[in-house]
Structures are given as structure tokens and as C-alpha cells.
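Aim 2, interim progress. The first record below pairs a target sequence with its C-alpha cells.
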Amino acid sequence: MSGDQAPSGDALFELAPSAAAPATDSGSDPRAGAGVGAEATREAQAAGAVATVCIDSPLPHLDRPFDYIVPRKLRGQVGVGSRVRVPFAGQLVSAIVTELGTGSGFKGSLSAVRSASARPVVSAEGIDLARRVARRYGGSLWDVLRLAVPPRVAAVERRDWTARTEDDRADYAAALEAAAGSGGSGGDIESGGSLVGACERVVWQALPEAEPRASAPVHALVRAALEAVVGEGGTGAGGTGTGGVSAGRTDVARTEASAAEAPHGPSAASAILVVPDARAIALVLAELERVGLRRWTSRGGGHVAVLDHDDGPSARFGSYLAGLHGHARIVLGTRPTAMQPVPRLGLITVWDEANGVYEDPHAPYPHARTVAAMRAEGGSALLLAGYALSADAVALTASGWARLATAPTASVRDAVPAVDIVSAERRDREGGAGWHWMPGSVWRRVRDGLARGPVGIVVPRAGYVRAAACARCDAWALCRECDSLLMVAAHGTDPRCQDAGHLQPDWHCPECHGAELKQVRQGADRIGEQLVRMLGDVPLTVSTASAGVSADGEVGEGVVLATPGALPAVEGGYAHLVIIDAGVAASASLGGELNALRWWLGAASLVRSRRDGGMVSVVGHLPPEVERALSSWSPADAATTEVEERRELGLPPHRRYLALSGDADLVLRATERVALVARDAQRPLEAAGPAIPSVTEVPIDGGTGLLVSRGVAQGAIDTVRALQREASAEGKELRMRVDGPLVLPR
């Protein structure tokens, strides 16, 4: 195996032991001198009332365990996963109990926990998952727990979450029977069986279902979840995996799990459905309710816990606890739901896994797809799905770690609309009308489609005019102060630059001295103005962030103008869809072609099948590989090609990317230490012949980017994290982001 090859499939998400991990021994401790006395400490140790906690601190050198004694008044209340308040450096800070036992590495007298939540808010398995995520991304345990656990609501927490409820397994079985008769591509589209088998990992190129014609194949997703719960699909035995505990400590993970399973018995399993947004939540929830399940509420209970920020803190925290304690065996929500602890994880599904919203914008920036894959290492089934797939997901199938599920060509043709790419040659043949933003031939199809149902028009950008050029010589109109492109915010306003907003009221072209501007990149607002005149009495609905996003099913006639992601589903599907100014975003970051493919296929999935007369007209300039994938509806093939190209170039996902910034001397030291780690790992492989270097530097603003082979990546991350702790203790700063966006130098 060369230094740049990925590890074997079973080791893709395995974290080897590291000497750089923080030790349990507290060493020089900010709590020194604040203990409650040696006798009290010994008594707590004898009673098994020593709590190891993770404190709320942004400082890397404090990302390590600290021990406290649990006073007698709190011993029936504090457990693994409890929120507590503890004295630290002269003040009370928040913390979460990660272990509870008899031993301590601290040599002095221990301080006491001051207060605690009514009950634990995360399971031992959830803490273990958070540790693994923190290590993989080079972050702190507290930061990961903060992302996973919603803010506390004391009134909700005080409910009796351990009380037995009625056995509702029959409800899930009845729902599965109803879902099985719903049609759609709920099973494995090649073999006719389950889409996801027990403990199986599947990457699925999904197809739109006939009804509802929507942004997700809800019949298939719901059926897979119900099969996992009832036991006909994936039935994992833990889901998040467990971690070892230090000597002299009691691991209460099994006790926690048993208590959480109590409402449903030892055979109960849970399923997690992670979706990108509130629209998808509403869509999947409607299907779950259609087959007879109820959304969980604090008053009436239910079968489905929904984690939605729009519901407010009380409802969200209550749904979180319902999933944690097994009161609802299906958990549905957005990105943070990927880390939701459940009693037994049978299946975790991430729908539209290529969507950029799954990369958390908060440190340590974990990706929901990766978190889900890490949980599958514990024995649960995994389903990564989308109408278009990411290179990262397809790479999992190339190593054999997961199975790629695609439909036969005949099934694809029957399920999707016809896609017509309007080429430059065709536009030339139409003359001047062909080079209008709406070519004449496409406009005729729009008028014909209106006789059969709603028509959709998708514009890739919001706003009025996003870029302009000289009307005389076609040179780009640029700002005199900063050379950025000029835009027009609204009709009758002066142009201004995109980057700094400098107004240009008397702009003249420096090339030909012309004063007239030509609109080059028109936004949805400008297109909408023109469509009002073109459509006459035909109703026009605009669905954009500025005008308001229309809900699915809200529109029943006329034309819908929308930006990508804002196009609402209509009953029966659109008769025709036009994609205006289709292209690939001008960016140097990886995956631009696949992102564009995801946008356009996501919109096309809302159009009727070709058997029902559905068609998509694509107007714009696309790379050949994107054109082929669009016209043949083969996004998995495009992603596979991309994976192979990146393998040859030594780019992610075949390598991992570390972005380092902060004090220049620390960045240099970190780079040197990573190089040493890579060199030590590379030596045994040098006899195999030349290979791509294990570490490649990439220049970035304010620091250094490192492309690191997967074989040494975790060692490199641990090494940089150790240096972060050293620097933090000295009051210096070294920042690291792992597997973030990679922008290649032009």
C-alpha cells in the first residue's frame, strides 16, 4: 500500500490509539487548594462518587478530564451525561459528567459538584461518539457536546422520562405494512428486497417517486426506517460504539442503555432520519403521519421525535429527550440530529448527503455524513442517499466499505423527465432569438406546457443584475476603486461593485469609453420583471429568499420562478421546467461540477416523468461531464469519474485536508511536526517505488494548508492538537480546521 492509499474499508473511520491524547492525571490544576478535604475525598471514592467532567472552556489545554466529588445530596441525581456546575479557577463553570467511579488521577483534595441537572442529557455511548468526533476533527469534547445536545430547559428535564409507556411496537409494524403498500421505490430497486439490510452500509442514487413528486423519495426513506425499527431491516446493537474507561471506574453505559430501552424491551431499535431543511422535515413527517404514526409531543407522546429549531427550545429539548430515552423510536431532524443519542441505533439515514448544509459552521466543523458513517462502525445500518451524490460518499463504495445502489437504465428512463440541453449550435440556428435568456424554441415549450400544468423556471442567482458589461465592446464592467464586478441592485439604481459596494454613478468603459451597460448575469428579480410582461394573464409565483419561499403544494397553476432549493413541489409534478443560465459556479474549490449537478437534478426531480410528458430544458454552458450526467440522469457515474480523477491528483477524499492558521511560528512548527509524522510512516513503504508525497503544502490566506495521506492523517491531527495544547498553555494561538473546503491555487 502506497503512502497515499486509503486504508482498508473497515478502517476508514477507525481511530487508532494516540500518545497525543490528553491524560487523565490533572497535573497542574486550576482547582488546587479548592478541595473539600482529604477525608471527604476518600469517602466519595469509597462510595463510587467521583465524577470526571468535561468543562466548558475554549482553551485547548483545558480540553481534558477533571475530577470532582459528588456530594451526598446529589448522589441519586448525578450520573454519566449529567449537566453540572463546578468550581474552576475561582468561578462556577458548566460541565458534563463523562465518567462516574471510585478513582482519580488528581493527588490533592477534590472539589465538590455544586449543582446538577435533574437527569442525564446524553448517554455514555453519546459521549463516546463525541470523543471520537472531537479527535477526528481535532477539536474539543465540549465543543462537540455543545453541537449535539440542545440547550437545557429545566421544566422539560424534570419530567419522568424513565416511566414505562405502552408497548407500541404494533403501531410501527402496522405503519410498515401501510408503507409497503404505498408504491414508490421503497425496496432495493435491483433485487426487490429491502433497500438497506441489517448492519448494511448503502450509498443510494435515488429516483423521484411518482407520487408525491417531491424533493425526497419519502416512501422509500420511511419504509427503510420502519424496517429498521420493526426488525426487517438494519438492527444495530448500539449505534455509536463504546470507548474504554480508566482503571477503577464504573462504566454505566449498559445501565443507561437498559433504562432507555425499558419502554420497548430489549428487541427495540431506533432509526434516525437526517434531512437538510424544514421543507424536507415537513415532507417526511407528512408521510410518517400518513402511515399512522404520530409526532411526539410532551402532552400526548407519539412515535416520531422531530428536532426542528422552528419549534422553540422547549419542544426541541423535549423531542431530544424522547429520542434519548426511547419514547419515540424514529428521530427526524436536520444536521445536529446525526449525533442524537438513541437506545439502540438500527439505521441512520442522511438524505441529500451532498448538500453543503451538513457541514457544521461551528468548531470543530463536523460533517453529518462523516458522523453518520462513524456511527455505522458500531453495527448499525447506514443509508447515504440523494438524487445526486458527493465524491466523498461514492469513495466509500470504491473501497468496499459501502454498497452503491443504483437503478437499472430502464427504471431510470421511466421515472425521470426527458432532459434537453439547448446547445450553442441550436441557439445559433435560431438567430438573435436563440441568444435571448429565454430562447424562442424553449419559450414555445413553456407555452405548450402551461396547457398541461404548472411550469417551473429556475434561475441560479437571486437579486436584480449580478454582473454587467460594456454594451459597446463587451468588456466586463469593473469598479474603479477595487476592480470587482459591477452589479445593479434594482431598476433605475446606479451600479455598485460586488465586493465593497462602491457606487459608480458615472461609469465609463476604460476600453472604449462607452457609458451604456449590458446586463450579463440577470437575477431572479430582473427575470421576474420580464416574465410579468411575457406571460400576460398567466399567474406568476416567485419563490426566492427575498420574495418568500413558497411551500410545497401551495401553487397549482401558472409559472413558478425560483432559485435553486426554493422551487416548491406541485401536485403531480411540473409539466415543464426551464433552467436559465445553467453553469458551474466560478470557484476554485473542489466539487463545483457535482454541486451544479445536484442543483439541477434536485429541480428536475419535481418534474413529471417522461411517460407523463415531463421535460426539462437546460439553457446555459455546462462542462461535458455535467451535460452527460444530466441528460442520462447518471450522477453516480459523474461522481465516480470525479473520485478517480482526484485519486490521480492526490486530492480529497483520498487525502485529508488540514488548514492551519494563527501565530506564524506555531504554524511552521506544526507543519514540521506533521512532516516528521509522515516521514516516519513513509519509510517502510519507500521500497515499493515512487508515490505521491504523504504531505503536500497548499498556500492559503493567513496560514498553510496540508494535504495528508489517510494512512498518517489521524497521527498528524493528534500531533497538531498536542501542539495546540502547548501553545494554549503559553497564551498563544494555533488554529486547525480538518476536512474543510479546499480552494486550489489558480
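The second target in this work package is listed in the same format:
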Amino acid sequence: MKRRHFISLFALNAIALLICLGCQTAQAMKEHPNPDDTKPHIESPQNVMVPPLAVDDTSITLIWSKPEDYSNVVSYNVYQQGSLVVNTKKLFYTAKELIEPGEEYTFYVTAVNASGAESNPSNKIEVSTLPKMQVFDVTDYGAIGDGKTVDTIAIQRAIYACTKGGKVLIPEGKTFLSGALFLKSDITFQIDGTLQGIDDAPHYPLASTRFTYYMSGNNFMGLINAYTVNYGSLKNIRICGGGTVSGGSDRVGSIRGHQNTKLGDNQVKASYGDDSDRADMIVAKGVDGLYISGLKMVNPAMHTVFITYSRNITVEGIHVDTYDIHNADGVNLCTSETAYIFNSYFDTGDDCINFNAGVGANGVKENYSTKHVRVFNNICKRGHGGAVFGSFTAAWFQDFLIEDCVFDGTDRGLRFKTGLKQGGGAKNILCRDIVMKNIVKDAIFFDSTYDCKYPSGGAGQFKEIIVKNITCTNTKGYGIYINGSPGTEHDNITLQNITIDAAKKGGAYLKHCRNIKFNNVTIKNCKTNWAIDAETTSGLEFTKCNPKP
């Protein structure tokens, strides 16, 4: 609520006096400088907040944004109830100590420089933990948890019984075998043991639609489903815990050659050879308020976490180990908005973190863009890309921040992919402060050559994108690869403060692009520094680049 302030004549006079005194003080300071004036200015962290549903009865997770100028910031101090609780280089903190159910806590964050000096406090937030949650232990509803008995009905019974604000518990130390489970609004589904999917296809209805116009039709439902076609009618669902979600009985790490899991093969057989019908392991569709945290995820039949038509999403602290399973992406965020993905580890059979905005003419017409997304403090190992935009780009990706991640051993680091028929593209994207190393193909990648079997939505385009503060060491492809399409060139991309060291194919490859700005880009230990197609590029700018083209 806005407050109206009324200033009396007396107050105006007082203000005038203070201004006068201030002028005099300023003059005196010029004559007698304060020793503190020699201290460097440190800007405060911004926007301290709790991301969607990241609070329960025992913990509170905070995130914050860097100061606008963070050049002299090396870490952050987090204060709880006015006392320092942690110093961290990360952009998040989970408070678990001195936390009680149903209590209010105050937090703020300061930035710290190399000498230990602090900024002024950030905004202060007051957060209340949830009241002590009622627990619905699945073993109280008949689940056995011996890894042999099918517990689907018992677990679903516990979900039905769970009251608003309650917790369905998969207890620690047991393995619960299950088919498709369906969650409801306003519950926490906490997995502290192991939830393992059954390998047989009939336990998963062939009823999921990722998109209404999906060419292959339905695919099998997942092991865990928060699913509705009435978008927004499912609300406030938390899937979390310290346990494991396994899509089937495969031994973790045993699959090589980009093959399917046992369940994946069985689902292909059940759908008469349609490989695209395989189930995503955790499915969220049409959810307003989704929190996924803490879990180890293995053996998906297809994608690991697939989120569509949803909003207000937090994915944090998950460990995805799906290499080398066919199409086993880590997180797919599709046609959704307002999402935070952080503090997670990915070693995957496909893209580590993938964004999708629909495809072709139908995706353009539907116009569900993927927007307002922040990705930070993640580690991506093997996978087709670290953070991947596309190739389904129809309704645009916009307003993204990708920062403070490590891409080590991925095929590509930042991967933007579209084609001549996908439509849309990406705009207003900031990628910064990322370490890339041991990249199998190209590190920073923009490409328009992906095939599309859907009715054309026009050529996709990437524009208004900033990539800055990147180091890339040891890549087998190009350090920077930009290849648009004739007539729909990639446009207005800035690459700033980037070091490419030992890129086998070359430092940078540019074709079908315009208005690309290179500022302080260093290329070293490369056989070819710059490969530029002069006939299809225009408006290129190079400032403080070494070597210059």
C-alpha cells in the first residue's frame, strides 16, 4: 500500500537547513577527507526472496540477485534474525538450523569484497515457516516397500487421504515399486527412500499429451504426475526429499550407446514401435506453484523432468544421473513462466537443461512463450548441452538469466538451436559468469539448421542476447559458432569478456548473422582464430579483441 507523506512548512525549512548544512559538510570533507572515503564502494545484493514454495516446516531457502556492479564482490554474508549465519559464494542459502514450525524469521544479505568489507544490507524479508505438517506415511496405507511388491494402489491411497498442507511420505530405507502416481493440489510428496518404477508398460496409461498438436499423439504417463489439461487448476505441489526416484530396474550407469531403459523398450513395443511414446519420469502439466528439490533421479524411460503449461516453478538441489539413456534430458521447461533452476547436478543422456516454446505453425498460433526464467549455480557434465534453447522455439524464449554455472564435458555449453520452420526464437537473454571446459563440440552455439516435420511457423531467430564473462578451455569444435538463415539472420548479439583457449576447429565461426558485437574477446591456442563469411554477415563490431579479425 502506498503511503502519502505531508510536509509542513516547518519541515520544508528544516530540509532546507539540512541541505545547507550538507553543502557545508561536503566542503569541509573536501578540505579534511574522511579516511573511510578511500574504501571501495560495494553495492548491495538485490531482490532477496524465497522462490516459489521453497519453505516448509523445517527449512527456508533464499535466493538473491547480484548487485548491478558486482566487480569487487567475492562472496555474500547471510543474516538471520540480525546475526550472521553463513558466508557463501553462491546465490542461494537454505536455512535449517534454528528453524521451527510456524515461526517468523527475518533475513537479509550483504556483499563482501576481497578485504572482508561489507555492503549495506539488501532488502530485508520476513518469512514464516509452515505449521508442522501432518504426515501420511505410505506404509500406513498398505505399502510394503520390499522392492518386489507393487505398491501403486497403497501409495495412491495415501495421496488421496492427504489433507491440504499435508505430506505424503515415502520413508527412508525401503524401495517402493510403483506404476503411475497422480498428485493433487496443496500437498508435499516427500521421497526419503527409493521410489522405483515398474518395468512393464501397462502400469502407465497412454494418456499424456505434451502438446495438443504433438505429431505422435499421446505418450505414456510418468511415474510421478502432477497433470491437468485445465491449466492452473493444480496448485502448490511439492516433490522433494533426500531419496531416489528411479524409472525402472536398470543398473545405474549400465546403459551405453544412447539406448532405452527396460521400461522404454517395453513402452515402444506396447505402442507398436513408436519410440516417441516413451514416458517422462516426472510430469508436470498445468500446475501453478511447483517445487522439486533434493532428489536423485535415475533411469527415466525418456525425459527426467518434463514441465509444460505451468508457472511459479522452483527446481533446486536435484542430482540427475541419466547418461547415456536415449533422450534422457535432465529438466525440460516448456511453454511455462516464472521459474528458478539452481544448485543442481546433471550428467545426462541428452540436454542437461532444455527450454521449449512449442513448434511450427501451431506453436506460433498457440503462443505460450517460455519466459521469466533464472538458472544459476548448476553443474552440467555429459549431455548434448548445458543450457539449451530449442529446437522448439515457436512462441519465443524471453527474459532469461543464465549465470554462475559450470559446463564440463557437455557436447555444447550454451546451445541455441532452431530451424527454417520452427518459428519464434529467443530474445532478451543474458548469459554470464559461466565456466566451460572439455566441450565435445562447440562452446557457445547459435544455429538455424534443425529439421522440423511440423507445418511451418517461419524461420526461427536469436536476437537481443548478451553473453559475457565466459571462459572456455579445451573444446573440440568452435569456441563461438553463429549460423543463422538467409533472410532471418541472428541479430544483435553481444559477446563480451570471453576467453577461448584451445578450440580445435577455431575461435569463432560467423555466417548469416548481423550486428554482432565482440568486446574484449580473447582467442588463443587455436589454429584458426576467426572464420567469417563476409557475404552473409554485416554490422560486425570488434572492440579490444585479441587477435583482431
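The two ends are 56 Å apart (CA to CA). This observation will shape the mutagenesis plan for the next reporting period.
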